[in-house]
Amino acid sequence: MEEQENMSQEQQPAQPAKKSSAGLIITGIVVALIALVVAVLGYHFLYAKPLIQENEELKELAELEKEEMVSQYRDFDAQYEMLQNQLSNDSLIAQIEDERRRTQELLEELERTKATDAAEIKRLKAEINSLRAVLRSYIMQVDSLNRLNQSLNEENTQIKEQISVANTQISNLSTERNQLKDKVNIAAQLDATGFWVTPKDKKGKEAKKVKDVKRFAFGFTIVKNVTAQNGQRTLYARILKPDNSVMGNKGTFTYENTSVEYTEKKYIEYTGEEEKVTMYSDVTEFLEAGTYKLFVFCDNQMIGQTSFTLK
User: Fold this and answer.
1) CB–CB of 280/171 below 8 Å?
2) Mind listing the pLDDT tens digit for each residue in 127-148?
3) Following DSSP, what letter does each residue of 33-85 receive, concatenated?
4) Cα separations (Å) of 170 from 42, 119, 174?
5) Phi then psi for 86, rounded to 5 degrees?
6) 14, 103, 120, 222: least buried by Cβ within 10 Å?
């Protein structure tokens, strides 16, 4: 028994050694955790934080790139509108309108796309190059048309000036021709001179008083005119009474686009030589004392006149 108790007493001091070993394990675990935390924090500050900052910067660059692309699309649309306003060619205007509509649709797609959608941004960026090439081709076409129109306008202006000069020359020639024609017409106009009038009574003798006049015999001489056209002429005699009414109205003829009454008419064959003409007019109406006027017309011209008095 004593030996057993001695043995128990000898084993008692070993217990503190176990407690010390467990403490060491716990301490090691804590130290390991602390080291892990330090390592994580170190990784965050050394690697993770710069990566986050880099991603933020890339995102900002992507937003700026998207805004630049939106600005380019809007610029394309404005240039298409400007081209349309410069044109009058309906076919080309329609083609440009199709391209402008396509540009607007792509712009709407771009505005709906997130800046971080790299694949879609890349596709829409490639479309910009395609649109730029198409727009450049239309600008060249419009510029070519404008130069052609300018050339045509200059030619048209020159032609108008030439036509104006030609019209002026034609007008001058026409004026000269009309003046010459007037001179020829005046030169060719018949001229009557040497008028005489004899009132006669019922016996054919010269009447002394107006109440005895039953007939008028009158005549004149047509002057020689080699410029006048030969051929048949119609002579119209118009006798106006003191009250300016026409004596013995036998019909009308045209004078200066007006219908005029005449007293007598006579046909003659004119040869260009001097010719004496005698005409007669019977009195079938009341005559009053006073001054009478005699006018002779031919070829729409008054070729002579005279007056006489009855008492």
Assistant:
1) no
2) 888 888 888 888 888 877 778 7
3) HHHHHHHHHHHIIIIIHHHHHHHHHHHHHHHHHHHHHHHHHHHHHHHHHHHHH
4) 104, 75, 6
5) -90, -10
6) 14
Residues in the chain: 311
Residue written as tokens 């009058």?
88
The H or E element that residue 296 is part of is strand 290-298
Closest residue by Cα to residue 189 from 220, 222, 219, 221 = 222
- Given a contact cutoff of 8 angstroms between Cβ atoms, the answer to whether 199 and 206 are in contact is yes
Cα–Cα dist 201/182, whole Å: 44
Q: Which two tokens stand for residue 227?
A: 């410029």
Q: What is the three-class DSSP state of 282?
A: strand
Which tokens sit at 47? 């690697």
The string of pLDDT tens digits covering residues 36-62 is: 655 655 555 555 455 455 567 667 777
Token pair 């001489």: residue: 221
Specify whether the backbone of 194 is left (phi greater than 0), alpha (psi in -120 to 50) or beta: left
CA 228/CA 160 separation, integer angstroms: 42
Q: What is the DSSP letter of 229?
A: P
**φ, ψ (nearest 5 deg) of residue 146:** -65, -40
Tell me, yes or no, if the pTM score tops 0.85. no
- Alpha helices (H) along the chain: 2-11, 15-43, 49-86, 90-112, 118-188
Report the phi/psi class of residue 244: left, alpha or beta, with left for phi > 0 and alpha for psi in -120 to 50.
Answer: left
Which residues are CB-contacts of 308 (< 8 A; sequence separation ≥ 6)?
Answer: 197, 291, 292, 294
